[in-house]
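Morning!

This is the sequence you dropped in the shared folder:
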Amino acid sequence: MSQLFIKSVPINVLFDFLEKINCVKTEKYYIVDVTAYKRSVYLNVLEQFLIELKEYYYSSKHNYINNEVMNHNKFNTVIRQICKFTKTHYTKELRKGQLKYSVVYNIYFLQP
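The structure's back. Tokens below.
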């Protein structure tokens, strides 16, 4: 299977999470940015999501989903790992804010 995952991660786990945090949704994809991460923390949904993912990750890889050290970059890594494993198409954009750049992922629920 994979060096990260013990068993298949249903893509609905990710899509349900993105719906819970009210990610911006276009006709074809979700937009996952720093605002989505902050909203997941604020709504206390991120911790539940990470706990749900524990059954899919090997125990040696639980450092990726450790809520105590989670930040926006690690959040992006988890999202990207799930997308790669499930072969869900995503694109990455760099957006310039006032002082720095931020990474934005477009996660397609309909294949382009």
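Headline: The chain is about 35% helix and 20% strand.

More detail when I'm at my desk.
O.
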